[in-house]
Inverse folding.
């Protein structure tokens, strides 16, 4: 092989030769400009000739390896000693080599005076070598260096010589190793056929071109480093000034590094240049992915940093030769990654190595390869420009294309049964709608980041759910171990995803912009993911959105705990359509509601100091809403289903462990908890929510009104969800800003900003679930560190926060009335929480002044008091109706013969109704108890008690109290004595005690006495029986008992005055009577919406529950009412005449 290999080496490396080759040769033989067709024809002809020569050489020399020989039969030992005169580097070969032989004897020195033995030995060692010996030693060093770096040996003939089993034998005309010959040597090695026996070494050669050249680059770099370290040692030993062989060896190593990079670039740009490199981009993809298994041997690992790695140098070389080819190489390499990713569904899958053009390993290995590809910033930027990186633009023709699943075809020779089955499958497939090119499914199937983020541990995947088979019969320890094992794999994969995205966003402004565009697309096409039942033909799967949230949370880490950086979050981003791309649009079907109704949009342009931080913050908040928040709601549904199924099985006396339906639901719960309740993700989420709360507290009111409503809603939903299902993960986290936000938004000042009653009710739930200290009301498992402020010595936020001391008590009283609009069952839960909070605040001296200030806002207090009475009336009516029914069924079931005599269908109906009654009573009685307690302790304050005595409140209060008293101690009281009352939270003695205490506190008030006398519920026997029961059970003592006992006599006196007043107005004209109550009006008012005159107390009570005109249902508020002054004056004159007439008659 004479002149051809240098030719092909020079041609393949033309891009580098023009800058680094022999200048003289360039001057004498300028390169001719050939067309593309001529270049390709010439290259193919040379490649064919090169391959033929390689095959011929292989046929004559089957696998022989070249040995290092000095030509005289004496083989060089593997370990070569160095001397200061001749050699300055030791090259150690770890392969098997012939044993060293003794050197020829040296002439003895003149023995005039024998020197010491050690001095004589040093003199002999420093005797200089001849020029020929030095040349031979240097040649052997070069050959050994070639074996270590290129894994080859050289030979000039086909004669058999001793071979090395780990090296490939190359036959060339001039086997001497020179800097100029490195290119020829590499060309010969790379031109070999993959089937050549010469490549069958032990251990095996690195496969293909890219892996082999990357290995050569790494070995050359290591040898270079060792050479330079040895030189540094000699410099310290003052030997560096002497001429050594290191310079030439360094030049050879440097040339090897340059040539392997150049050949690799040429092979990638022209895949058919070498048969070994026909699939060069696939080889590159596999080499990049191998970094996950052995980072130190990766082509992206550089001894002096990533910029000195083979991959980095290769990218630089491609860019210097042809930027267009660089783009093409990266795009082709990415296509191999996407093809392999499409075959992975979970982190448990093995990957796409089994498919043609695939990459060995699972999703973690593939994503690691992508991350390594992005270690070069230009390559990362190039990746974001591949056509599959983004979805089609909204409104484009391609975005409207629909992808439909393939319809199965009937195989030839199918049987009649198979034909029927296939026709059925075809009919089912015909109804499938597929998905649009711009949609959630397209995002995770057609885009690179979508393919990456869709991989996880989705609970619906059989590989995940099957890990929890027979869940009901397994121990919790076993289940937890399974969950933790899967979480570890998921966490590793998500870390790789984080690294990939971080590499992309740090690759430059263009790449970062492309990533943000992809995130915008992801959020827009998944707008329906927060629905109760998302349409899976339009939105991505839950795992994709969850992984997106995890990645964005990691991008936010640098500014979550840094107040200086978090201050760069500009609230104007939510109103900057060009920046958020429509994610926070305020109009149309996909509008994102704001906190306030119809807020004023900002007039100033959006000019942030930092654009990336607001993007990360707002997009993360939106991603959490579409993923974690929606997932938590779905998980709560699973938990309810698990509990309900278990309860039904217990009622039927069936074994839950053997029930397949229960085991299936329970396995779905555990499978969902793997991803949704991962501790690290929960902690990151809570820290982000605390940052969001700090942001909402910091911004001014006009900006607050423009914030998306779901920001606050998500904070409430997620904190309460985590406090219920995974409270231990909250340990050690600072959530003080969330408390401050809740107090701020609940305050009367912001009651008009946050108009959503359901959202305001959730704010109260957060205070109860998270910040009410443990064991105050129930058995909360939230760590105490969460509810206490470390800056105040561990005092609870509820007591130590200055804003809470100022506004929280009035806010909760207002909220108690507002939750009336949230729904029947929901309001009971909300009010139970508010009652517990109010009791805790009432018992603390820090909030007593705030309670006193409540009386200054009459309107708010009336709403609160109305809520209490509505709630109590409703609960008592429901409970007192259902407890007798429960009692009757218990008695019926206690008689086995009577119960068995009933038809089975009737028994099932009775049982179903009985179970429903029990659930309703269990839900209602706790709130009923707390409401009566709250009425009791609030009315110990004189100012608050006077508000309950207002005309529009007093009659309702009296009727409610007497109604409850009648149910507890009346003639039907025995019907309330159910079995096991504690199971229903039914404590009749405590209820009667609280009730009688309320009567005692109001017994001295004349208004209360009069209303008792007017009430249809009041009778003397009822009050007498109540007093006797209190004394018998010792429910009240001291002054309270005396006041309660005196009430009956006071009511008797008030009844006489009531009778006189009734007689006075008995013949009053109809225009003086209330149109609803048919009673004589005391303060007539005109309703402008209907023109009706009605008593003020009547319409006030009505508007508390329904803000409309009762006569035509038009909207009506208190401030719209007009006093009927003329009618009132007429009525007063009429009364005066009546009193005068009765006085004249002596009545």
């Amino acid at each position: 092989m004479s002149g051809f290999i240098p030719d092909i080496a020079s041609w393949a490396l033309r891009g580098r030769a023009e800058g680094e080759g022999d200048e003289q040769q360039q001057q004498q033989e300028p390169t001719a400009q050939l067309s593309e067709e001529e270049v390709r024809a010439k290259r193919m002809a040379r490649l064919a000739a090169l391959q033929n020569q390689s095959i011929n050489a292989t046929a004559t020399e089957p696998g022989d390896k070249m040995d290092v020989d000095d030509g005289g039969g004496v083989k060089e030992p593997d370990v070569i000693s160095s001397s200061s005169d001749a050699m300055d580097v030791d090259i150690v070969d770890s392969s098997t080599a012939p044993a060293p032989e003794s050197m020829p004897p040296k002439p003895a020195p003149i023995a005039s005076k024998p020197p010491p033995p050690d001095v004589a030995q040093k003199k002999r060692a420093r005797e200089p070598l001849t020029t020929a010996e030095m040349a031979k030693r240097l040649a052997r060093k070069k050959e050994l260096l070639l074996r270590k770096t290129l894994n080859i040996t050289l030979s000039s003939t086909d004669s058999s010589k001793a071979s090395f089993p780990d090296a490939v034998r190359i036959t060339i005309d001039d086997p001497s190793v020179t800097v100029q010959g490195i290119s020829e040597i590499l060309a010969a090695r790379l031109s070999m056929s993959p089937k050549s026996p010469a490549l069958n070494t032990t251990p095996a050669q690195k496969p293909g071109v890219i892996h082999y050249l990357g290995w050569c680059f790494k070995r050359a770099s290591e040898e270079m480093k060792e050479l330079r370290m040895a030189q540094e040692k000699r410099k310290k030993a003052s030997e560096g000034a002497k001429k050594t062989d290191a310079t030439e060896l360094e030049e050879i190593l440097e040339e090897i590094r340059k040539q392997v990079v150049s050949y690799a670039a040429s092979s990638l740009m022209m895949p058919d240049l070498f048969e070994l490199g026909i699939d060069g981009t696939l080889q590159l993809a596999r080499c990049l992915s191998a970094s996950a298994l052995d980072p130190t041997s990766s082509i992206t690992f550089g001894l002096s940093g990533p910029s000195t790695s083979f991959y980095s140098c290769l990218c630089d070389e491609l860019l210097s030769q042809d930027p267009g080819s660089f783009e093409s190489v990266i795009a082709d390499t990415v296509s191999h990654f996407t093809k392999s990713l499409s075959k992975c569904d979970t982190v448990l899958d093995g990957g796409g190595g089994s498919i043609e053009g695939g990459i060995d390993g699972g999703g973690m290995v593939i994503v690691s390869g992508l991350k390594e590809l992005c270690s070069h910033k230009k390559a990362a930027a190039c990746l974001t420009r591949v056509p599959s990186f983004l979805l089609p633009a909204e409104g484009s023709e391609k975005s409207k294309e629909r992808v439909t699943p393939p319809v199965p075809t009937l195989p030839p020779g199918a049987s009649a049964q198979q034909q029927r089955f296939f026709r059925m499958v075809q009919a089912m497939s015909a109804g499938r709608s597929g998905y649009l090119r711009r949609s959630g499914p397209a995002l995770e199937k057609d885009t690179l980041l979508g393919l990456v983020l869709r991989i996880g541990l989705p609970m619906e995947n059989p590989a995940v759910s099957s890990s929890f088979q027979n869940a009901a019969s397994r121990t919790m320890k076993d289940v937890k171990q399974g969950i933790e094992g899967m979480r570890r794999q998921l966490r590793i994969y998500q870390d790789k995803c984080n690294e990939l995205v971080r590499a992309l966003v740090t690759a430059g402004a263009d790449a970062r912009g492309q990533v943000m565009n992809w995130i915008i697309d992801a959020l827009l096409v998944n707008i329906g993911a927060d629905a109760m039942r998302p349409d899976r033909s339009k939105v991505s799967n839950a795992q994709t959105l969850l992984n997106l949230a995890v990645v964005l949370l990691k991008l936010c880490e640098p500014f979550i705990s840094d107040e200086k950086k978090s201050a760069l979050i500009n609230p104007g981003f939510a109103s900057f359509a060009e920046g958020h791309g429509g994610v926070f649009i305020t109009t149309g079907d996909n509008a994102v509601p704001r906190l306030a109704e119809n807020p004023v949009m900002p007039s100033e342009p959006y000019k942030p100091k930092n654009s990336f931080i607001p993007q990360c913050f707002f997009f993360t908040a939106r991603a959490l809403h579409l993923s974690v928040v929606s997932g938590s709601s779905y998980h709560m549904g699973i938990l309810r289903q698990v509990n309900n199924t278990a309860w039904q099985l217990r009622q039927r006396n069936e074994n839950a462990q053997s029930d397949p339906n229960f085991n299936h639901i329970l396995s779905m719960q555990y499978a969902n908890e793997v991803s949704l309740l991962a501790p690290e993700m929960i902690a990151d989420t809570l820290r982000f929510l605390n940052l969001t709360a700090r942001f909402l507290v910091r911004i001014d009111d006009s900006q607050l009104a423009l914030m998306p409503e779901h920001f606050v809603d998500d904070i409430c939903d997620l904190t309460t969800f985590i406090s219920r299902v995974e409270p231990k993960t909250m340990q050690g986290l600072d959530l003080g800003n969330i408390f401050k936000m809740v107090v701020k938004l609940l305050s009367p000042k912001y009651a008009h900003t946050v108009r959503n009653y359901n959202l305001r009710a959730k704010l109260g739930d957060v205070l109860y679930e998270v910040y009410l200290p443990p064991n105050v009301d129930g058995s909360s498992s939230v760590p105490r560190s969460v509810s206490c402020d470390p800056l105040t010595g561990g005092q609870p936020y509820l007591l130590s926060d200055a804003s809470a001391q100022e506004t929280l008590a009035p806010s909760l009283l207002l909220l108690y009335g507002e939750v009336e609009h949230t729904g029947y069952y929901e309001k009971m839960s909300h009010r139970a929480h508010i009652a517990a909070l109010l009791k805790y605040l009432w018992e603390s001296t820090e909030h007593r002044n705030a309670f006193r200030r409540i009386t200054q806002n009459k309107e708010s207090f009336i709403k609160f008091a109305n809520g209490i009475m509505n709630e109590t009336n409703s609960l008592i009516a429901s409970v007192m109706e259902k407890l007798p029914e429960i009692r009757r069924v218990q008695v019926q079931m206690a008689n086995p013969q009577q119960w068995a005599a009933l038809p089975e269908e009737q028994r099932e109906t009775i049982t179903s109704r009985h179970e429903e009654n029990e659930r309703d009573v269990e839900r209602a009685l706790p709130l009923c108890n707390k409401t009566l307690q709250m009425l009791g302790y609030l009315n110990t304050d004189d100012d608050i008690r006077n508000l309950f005595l207002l005309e529009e409140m007093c009659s309702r209060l009296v009727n409610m109290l007497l109604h409850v008293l009648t149910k507890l101690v009346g003639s039907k009281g025995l019907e309330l004595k159910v079995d096991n009352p504690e199971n229903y939270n039914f404590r009749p003695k405590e209820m009667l005690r609280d009730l009688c205490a309320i009567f005692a506190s109001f017994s001295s008030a004349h208004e209360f006495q009069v209303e008792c006398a007017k009430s249809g519920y009041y009778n003397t026997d009822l009050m007498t029986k109540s007093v006797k029961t209190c004394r018998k059970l010792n429910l009240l003592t001291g002054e309270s008992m005396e006041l309660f006992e005196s009430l009956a006599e006071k009511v008797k006196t008030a009844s006489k005055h009531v009778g006189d007043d009734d007689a006075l107005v008995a013949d009053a004209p109809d225009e003086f009577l209330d149109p609803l109550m048919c009673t004589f009006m005391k303060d007539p008012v005109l309703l402008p919406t209907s023109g009706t005159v009605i008593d003020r107390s009547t319409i006030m009570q009505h508007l508390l529950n329904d803000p409309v005109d009762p006569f035509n249902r038009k909207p009506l508020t208190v401030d719209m009412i007009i006093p009927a002054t003329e009618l009132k004056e007429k009525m007063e004159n009429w009364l005066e005449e009546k009193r005068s007439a009765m006085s004249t008659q002596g009545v």
Remarks:
- Residues 612-651 form the longest helix (40 residues).
- The beta strands are 152-155, 168-171, 402-403, 435-436, 788-789, 795-796, 1084-1087, 1092-1095, 1122-1123.
